[in-house]
Design brief:
five-stranded mixed β-sheet; 473 residues; rod-shaped; single chain; alpha+beta; five-stranded antiparallel β-sheet
Length: 473
């Protein structure tokens, strides 16, 4: 793994950060809520204790008060921590006339006129705060006030609430660790899939196996395999094209080399003017042939990148066909060929006009170059019932027996023309590869189709129609 890749964020850490972050937020909310609940319940417990003691005192017959200094202190049972639930209560008991009958605890005696119910009292010279509960007996013969220091009550609430949230605090790291391990283990299929993709050797036409493909990974695996298949097909096409180009260039370059060597190595006066002129003409024709192949390669490269740089625009294929045919009328007349168009008035598609013209021009030029004189060539166009716009170039020409598809003899040299020298003609494959690439850029297709009546060869282009228009004519 490169240093740059190692610096990239990890999906595992990304998931763990978000998951643990969400866990901490939820956990913290529950801990906070638990603490508040603990404090509230502890306060209610204390208030209930005060009310219970008050009811107990009112229902006991108290004959006299124990002197304040002789009162028995609260006994601390062994095993209790600090104040654990053992609260120091203070009790003041009066008769109906307001005389103090009994007093227990450290709290100063509150005023007799304290209202019934719970209250917060500030007693003594230091104004200590006490939580109190005051109540009259049913016959209003006695009145009792039970008190606990508010600080002791709050300490008890904090202790109860703290013990409620303590398990959650030490359990959080354990849950986070277990969750991190679970995420790491759950991500193992994705890691194995990533490693397998990284190990792929494109030169060996390898594909991603399905042994790591969980249901969620199947679309990714299938997409990767589809891309690999398409890349292998593209590489195979490129290899075939490279072989074709090498063949196309080898013939004229070999001919140029032979003719040039013959001119250079021939003794003075060995070649007459006609032979020298013929050799020079052949060198010029072979140079033009090589230049034509190179121009086809440039057109091929242009077709591959033009659609990436230019957005599609409405193109009238019918007008484009008439324009291309008109541009080749002179060449057709020189070869004694009949070149015509049969198309609607308008036929619109979305695409790149320059590339579509390049594709159509290649088909028309191939039909003119690879058929004998006197051939009828027709550019036909229309729209199918499925909404696809089609354009095809058909001819009724037949190649002579023993001739190759590129118009050359078995030795790669032309057999026609003045003095046995013919203008070199490039192979059909390079032009057809240009057309196929242009059509792939337009989400269309290109193929040879059965020729209509009266013709022997027909090549068709199919392009999706422009949704905003319809064929007319």
């Amino acid at each position: 793994m490169s240093a740059r890749a190692a610096r990239r964020p990890s999906l595992i850490w990304h998931l763990m950060a978000w998951t643990l972050g969400a866990l901490v937020v939820v956990w913290g909310s529950f801990v906070g809520l638990g603490y508040q609940t603990g404090v509230h319940e502890a306060d209610e417990l204390t208030d209930g204790h005060l009310a219970g003691v008050a009811a107990l005192v009112l229902n006991l017959h108290v004959e006299g008060a124990v002197a304040h200094g002789d009162s028995t202190p609260v006994h601390e049972p062994p095993g209790l921590m600090a104040h654990d639930y053992q609260q120091s209560l203070s009790v003041a008991l009066w008769d109906g006339a307001g005389r103090l009958i009994s007093r227990t605890g450290d709290a100063p005696v509150p005023a007799f006129d304290t209202e019934q119910g719970f209250a917060i009292l500030h007693l003594g010279p230091d104004r200590r705060v006490w939580r109190s509960f005051t109540q009259w007996s049913r016959d209003r013969a006695r009145k009792v006030c039970v008190m606990i220091e508010l600080q002791e009550r709050d300490d008890l609430a904090d202790d109860i609430a703290g013990q409620m949230i303590e398990p959650g605090l030490w359990l959080l790291p354990v849950v986070a660790l277990a969750l991190g391990l679970a995420i790491r283990r759950g991500m193992r299929p994705l890691n194995e899939l990533s490693q397998e993709v990284e190990r792929l050797d494109l030169a060996q036409a390898e594909r991603v196996s399905h042994r790591h493909a969980l249901r969620e990974f199947l679309p990714v695996v299938n997409s990767i395999n589809t891309l690999l298949d398409r890349q292998q097909e593209a590489l195979e096409r490129e290899r075939s094209l490279a072989n074709e180009v090498a063949h196309e260039l080898r013939t004229p370059l070999t001919s140029i080399s032979l003719q040039a060597r013959a001119l250079v190595d021939a003794p003075a006066g060995a070649l007459d003017d006609a032979a020298q002129r013929q050799a020079l003409v052949r060198i010029g024709q072979d140079a033009l042939h090589a230049g034509h192949v190179l121009s086809q390669l440039l057109a091929l490269a242009r077709a591959g990148r033009a659609m990436l740089a230019e957005p599609p625009v409405p193109v009238d294929l019918a007008a484009l066909a008439r324009q291309v045919v008109a541009a080749h009328a002179q060449v057709a007349w020189q070869r004694d060929c009949v070149l015509s168009v049969q198309a609607p008035e308008t036929l619109r598609v979305m695409g790149n006009a320059v590339l579509l013209e390049l594709a159509l021009r290649n088909l028309v030029e191939n039909a003119l170059k690879h058929t004998p004189p006197g051939t009828q060539i027709e550019v036909q166009a229309g729209q199918s019932e499925q909404g696809e716009v089609w354009l095809q170039v058909c001819d009724d020409g037949r190649r002579a027996n023993g001739r190759r598809a590129d118009g050359l003899g078995a030795d790669g040299l032309g057999a026609d023309g003045p003095g046995g020298v013919a203008a070199p003609v490039d192979s059909l494959h390079l032009g057809h590869e240009i057309v196929a690439r242009v059509l792939r850029a337009h989400q269309g297709h290109f193929a040879e189709v059965p020729a209509p009546e009266g013709f022997t060869t027909c090549y068709r282009l199919g392009i999706p129609a422009d949704p905003g228009s319809a064929a007319a004519g």
